[in-house]
Specification:
Layout: E1 7-12, H1 20-30, E2 34-39, H2 43-46, H3 49-56, H4 74-81, E3 84-90, H5 92-100, H6 106-113, E4 118-122, H7 126-130, H8 132-143, E5 147-148, E6 152-155, E7 161-165, H9 169-181, E8 190-195, E9 199-203, E10 206-209, H10 215-226, E11 230-235, E12 247-250, H11 254-265, E13 270-273, E14 280-282, E15 302-304, H12 308-311, E16 317-324, H13 328-338, E17 343-348, E18 360-361, E19 363-367, E20 372-374, E21 378-379, H14 380-397
Parallel strand pairs: 1-2, 1-3, 3-4, 4-5, 8-11, 8-13, 11-12, 13-16, 16-17
Antiparallel strand pairs: 6-7, 9-10, 14-15, 17-19, 18-21, 19-20
Helix pairs in contact: 1-3, 1-9, 4-6, 5-8, 10-14
The structure holds cytidine-5'-triphosphate.
């Protein structure tokens, strides 16, 4: 959402990873950004400008001396228009030229002339990456406020294995969103989000778990980041990638989640408990694998886990979730009162298109004054922003 109607200048330089920039351009465009691609001459050897023009529906620039397109003095126009400039892939060459303040092509000129934040996603051979000259250049740029999306580790086109692979599109995209959202309505706020379903061990190979993909909690963490918050995500096991720009703490059990939450909330303004926390855990988890005994049945003794939300006190805004299969609003209101919440997000888990595993959710928001707001079926990031709209209102009302 933070990308909608934003102007993104995407710099593409001469690396074999240049083709991956097409995916980034596509995702930025789909998210509603106006994407102006500026290519170095070397980049045009790896991928055709037509590819980017077709994806972005906008002119692609590569030379300072082309007949003017819709821009008047192109490097100045792009530099002024940009809300953010991202260079992906960024070669050792462009990093060196930017560090030296050289302005010998359109991309360098645009970066030199802009006041917008600049993000670099380097991609190069491992030896070039590890070369102290490259590292010193990057350090210099970091000190000037450039954001660097660290390259990944793996096999390279040149046959080597090591650091220097262009970061995944999702990481670059996440960084662009974080940079664009840094002045949002949650700027300066510290938000703690829990996600996923805790796992309570029975023995070293088995556990009792809750059905939860973690998607709603992760969407909340990313949405809060995109509105400028400093976010801590306390995650029970999920198959999701750690969000960029969010401090992620991994836990397994309800007791571990409790400790992580209590540690994190001491400095927090907001706690959003989206995790499905197990209410019971096996009383005596086996240290070795429990073997079955022919036909005999087995009884597990379970003990209660602490209620984390109820334990958290203090002036912070507390948001809970109520996953219900019947009496949705009645049960949610009871939990809101019992746990001393400012807001509860109630969802009916019997609907196929909302709740567990799916990418959409249909929820009712109920606040401490009893106001109810029934949201339509929305993608989970959309639900996350609607929840955060309410959180921002509550923070403002509490003058926090
Ligand atoms: N929660 C918590 N600690 C627990 C259990 C739940 O902090 N031990 C939080 C959840 O993260 C959620 C809210 O409390 O935000 C409600 O969770 P839910 O499981 O729906 O409710 P319970 O209170 O556990 O009640 P029940 O399982 O009986 O419906």
């Amino acid at each position: 959402m933070v990308l909608r109607d934003k102007s993104v200048v995407l710099g593409v330089t001469g690396s074999i990873a240049a083709y991956k920039a097409a995916d980034l351009a596509s995702k930025l465009t789909q998210a509603g950004a106006a994407v102006d691609v500026v290519m170095t001459r070397a980049a045009t050897e790896f991928i055709a400008p037509l590819t980017f023009r077709s994806i972005t529906h906008r002119p692609v620039s590569s030379s300072m001396f082309n007949a003017p397109t819709e821009y008047e003095i192109e490097h100045i126009a792009l530099a002024e228009r940009a809300d953010v400039i991202a260079i992906a892939p960024a070669t050792a060459d462009i990093i060196a030229r930017l560090a030296a303040g050289i302005a010998d092509d359109l991309l360098c000129c645009t970066v030199l002339a802009t006041r917008a934040p600049v993000i670099l996603a380097p991609a190069m051979n491992v030896n070039m990456w590890e070369n102290p000259i490259t590292q010193e250049n990057l350090e210099r740029l970091r000190a000037r406020g450039f954001r660097v999306v660290e390259p990944g580790y793996g096999a390279m086109a040149c046959g080597a294995t090591g650091a220097g692979r262009l970061a995944d599109t999702e990481r670059i995209l996440g960084t662009i969103q974080q940079v664009l959202g840094s002045g949002g309505d949650l700027a300066g706020k510290c938000v703690v989000v829990t996600a996923g379903g805790t796992q309570e061990p029975i023995d070293p190979v088995r556990h009792i778990g809750n059905r939860s993909s973690g998607k709603m909690g992760y969407a909340l963490a990313e949405a809060a980041r995109d509105r400028g918050a400093e976010v801590t995500l306390i995650s029970a096991p999920t198959s999701l990638a750690e969000p960029v720009g969010v401090e992620t703490v991994h836990v397994q059990t309800a007791l571990e989640m409790r400790q992580a939450v209590l540690d994190a909330v001491s400095t927090a303004d907001v706690l959003i408990m989206a995790a499905a926390v197990a209410d019971y855990r096996p009383a005596n988890a086996g240290k070795t694998k429990i073997k079955k005994e022919s036909a005999a049945d087995m009884t597990l003794e379970l003990v209660r886990t602490p209620d984390i939300l109820s334990e958290v006190k203090g002036g912070l805004v507390k948001v809970g979730f109520a996953a219900e299969s019947e009496d949705l609003v009645k049960n949610a209101v009871a939990k809101l009162k019992e746990k001393g919440l400012d807001l509860i997000v109630a969802n009916d888990i019997t609907a196929a298109d909302s709740g567990f595993d799916v990418d959409t959710n249909r929820v009712v928001l109920i606040d401490g004054k009893g106001n109810q707001e029934e949201l339509p079926l929305l993608p989970k990031p959309g639900v996350a922003h609607r929840i955060l709209d309410r959180v921002a209102d509550i923070l403002a009302a509490k003058k926090m």
